Amino acid sequence: METNKAKIREFLSRHFRNDDLKDDDDIFALGFVNSLFAMQLVMFVEGEFKIRVENEDLDLDNFRSVDAIATLIAKKAA
C-alpha cells in the first residue's frame, strides 16, 4: 500500500505544490481539486493501477486524500 501511496503523492505533486501534503489531508478542502482535475485523478488511478472506477466509486470520499485513494485501489484490486 505504501508503494501505491508514493505513486499517488507523485501524481498529485505534479499538479499542485504542497510539499508537506499528508496522506490524510483533504485535497478538496485544501482547494487543490476542481472538476477537471477530479477527472484527471480518476483517469490516473485507472491507468496507473489497472483498475476500473465504476460509477458507484465516484464518491468524493474515495478521492479526498491519499489514504482514501489508496484504500479504493486496494478494495478494487482485491
TrEMBL record:
Q: Which Pfam families match?
A: PP-binding (PF00550)
List each copy of the Carrier domain by range. Answer: 1-77
Q: Which InterPro entries match?
A: ACP-like_sf, PP-bd_ACP
PROSITE patterns, alphabetized: CARRIER
Matches recorded under SUPFAM superfamilies:
ACP-like (SSF47336)
Q: Name the chain's protein.
A: D-alanyl carrier protein
Q: Which organism is it from?
A: Tumebacillus algifaecis
Lineage of the organism: Bacteria, Bacillati, Bacillota, Bacilli, Bacillales
